[in-house]
Design goal:
Blueprint (H helix, E strand, L loop, with lengths): L2 H10 L7 H4 L21 E2 L18 E2 L1 H15 L6 E6 L8 E6 L5 E2 L2 E9 L4 E21 L2 E10 L2 E8 L1 E2 L2 E2 L11 H5 L2 E4 L3 H13 L24
Antiparallel strand pairs: 1-2, 3-4, 4-6, 5-6, 6-7, 7-8, 7-12, 8-9, 10-11
């Protein structure tokens, strides 16, 4: 079975493992920092419990809850640190390091965070007070999956990457002492058997693909003058870390 078909099949399985819809746009509560663009339910988001052993394969355990207000603050601090424009984003959650607490996975979709080959994915680890960023991965397209395999005690991620002349493919993003690998476009193709048992964190959506295609149309090729729009940044240097 082709990798991309598997990714679509895994991402389509909502249920207990489809966490993206539970925490989508969790930065838009009243306490959300100014400038963020998203939509969220009221109150803490409760994640689905770990499935029983006899209920089928459960490669990743979800436990606890994520406070949308605290995550929103962490996202805003990260945005300011990176000196980027406010951006829409998609969110999901999974216990990636096995400590019983969910990590927040955030895929920024604004033009200041995307290139033709994908956008910025940031993994935030929960702390006693709030969240801290542990990894920033560039050139990422959804879907984002949590694989049963792991490195240095953290679950591997499987993401799509490519575009702008590069083939779109599913790759494995592994964790090391420095965090998750920083650039998805240079990573190896994901193993089909591993991908087939991976759990969905952030699903692919037609709206995201449409937005990314629009971003790509406004990103100039190297040597060309970038298109400018009010409040949004476009960059011709595709080596820049989004």
């Amino acid at each position: 079975m082709k990798i991309n078909q598997i990714i679509w099949k895994c991402a389509a399985k909502t249920g207990a493992m489809a966490i993206a819809s539970a925490v989508a746009g969790c930065g838009s509560l009243q306490s959300e920092p100014e400038g963020l663009i998203s939509a969220a339910p009221e109150g803490p988001v409760v994640l689905a419990p770990k499935r029983a052993a006899d209920s089928g394969p459960a490669p990743i355990a979800y436990a606890g809850s994520i406070d949308p207000a605290e995550l929103g603050k962490a996202i805003e601090r990260f945005r300011v640190t990176k000196k980027r424009e406010a951006s829409p984003y998609e969110t999901g959650a999974a216990d990636l390091n096995g400590d019983g607490k969910p990590e927040a996975v955030v895929l920024f979709t604004g033009q200041d965070w995307c290139l033709k080959t994908g956008c910025s994915l940031v993994v935030f680890q929960s702390q006693e007070f709030g969240f801290r960023p542990v990894s920033h991965i560039v050139n990422v397209r959804p879907a984002v999956l949590a694989a049963p395999s792991q490195g240095s005690g953290w679950r591997d991620l499987i993401v799509k990457t490519g575009g702008g002349g590069a083939p779109v493919r599913a790759v494995t993003v592994s964790f090391s002492s420095n965090g998750y690998a920083a650039n998805a476009i240079v990573l190896p193709v994901a193993d089909a058997a591993v991908a087939s048992s991976a759990a969905s964190i952030i699903q692919d959506t037609p709206s995201f693909q449409s937005a990314l295609d629009q971003h790509a149309a406004n990103i100039a090729e190297p040597g060309q003058e970038p298109v400018r729009q009010t409040g949004l940044s476009h960059f011709s240097d595709q080596t820049r870390n989004p």
